[in-house]
Amino acid sequence: MDFLKPTADCPDAVPSSAETGGTNYLAPGGLSDSQLLLEPGDRSHWCVVAYWEEKTRVGRLYCVQEPSLDIFYDLPQGNGFCLGQLNSDNKSQLVQKVRSKIGCGIQLTREVDGVWVYNRSSYPIFIKSATLDNPDSRTLLVHKVFPGFSIKAFDYEKAYSLQRPNDHEFMQQPWTGFTVQISFVKGWGQCYTRQFISSCPCWLEVIFNSR
Questions:
Q1: What is the pLDDT of residues 67-125, one digit of tens each?
Q2: Which among 69, 18, 31 is positioned nearest to 182, based on CA atoms?
Q3: Range 58-73 average pLDDT
Q4: What is the dihedral of CA 51, 82, 149, 199, to 10 degrees?
Q5: 149-153, 181-185, 187-191: which range is least confident on average?
Q6: Mind spelling out the 3-state secondary structure of 183-205?
Q7: What residue spans carry the region label Disordered (predicted)?
Q8: 193 Cβ contact partners less than 8 Å away, ≥ 6 residues apart
Q9: Confidence of residue 135 (pLDDT cuts 50, 70, 90)
Q10: Sheet holding 80-82: strands in order across?
Q11: CA atoms of 12 and 2, how far apart (whole Å)
Q12: Are the CB atoms for 95 and 201 separated by under 8 Å?
């Protein structure tokens, strides 16, 4: 259970669960999670992870200090962030079905060239990151990662050089360029029925600290 406890330096200002108004995820005081966590000089963690079920965040932000983190649903699947231990009031059959498919989940690994995501589950995951696409593109694409495959989801050098993209979803919240969104099993965007990630049953928001 010690692995599931938030670290001492993880921010306490954000409630354990918050209803979002569409895709504008705001914390108390009108600040986004990104603004709360990316304060200059705070380098105790290299990223934080938020778990969402549709428009509701479940549990507290999980601060990551180790070079890699396993995010899974059922114990024991590694030392890391166990989503199955979080208290969720969502009774949706679709959410419960997707939860049961998360299994071994994913692994986030910080390497010299950026942050890699490895799909350890038996189902595809879907990733949206500003550093995966051409910065001049009109919208950011959602990338499908099959089981057993990995992708460099975040590149620090590219993130520093990015301008705010012409993407409707990102324009609804403060843009930092240091956020990656990951959905389990279900995709979203222009190629899918779900246009926004807040319509996906189970998904993650990973906010990176600047180096």
A1: 999 999 987 766 799 999 999 988 899 999 999 999 999 999 999 989 999 999 999 99
A2: 69
A3: 94
A4: -30
A5: 187-191
A6: EECCCCCCCCCCCCHHHCCCEEE
A7: 1-21
A8: none
A9: low
A10: 80-82, 68-72, 106-111, 114-119, 150-154
A11: 18
A12: yes
Q: How far is CA 138 from CA 129, 157, 165, 166, 168, in A?
A: 14, 21, 7, 6, 10
* Residue 168: DSSP 8-state: H
Residue 14: alpha-carbon gap to chain centroid? 16
161's tokens: 């050089």
The dihedral sign for the CA sequence 131, 135, 137, 138: positive
List the beta bridge partners of residue 172. none
- Give domain limits for the chain: 45-163+173-206
The three-state (H, E, C) secondary structure of 38-106, written as one string:
CCCCCCCCCEEEEEEECCEEEEEEEEECCCEEEEECCCCCCCEEEHHHCCCCCCCHHHHHHHHHHCCCE
Half-sphere exposure of 3 (CA within 13 A, CB side): 15
Q: 152 exposed, middle or buried (CB, 10 Å; 0-12, 13-18, 19+)? A: middle
Under CATH, which number does the domain 45-163+173-206 receive? 2.60.200.10
Work out the burial of residue 99: count CB atoms within 10 Å of its CB; fewer than 13 is exposed, 13-18 middle, 19 or more buried.
Answer: buried
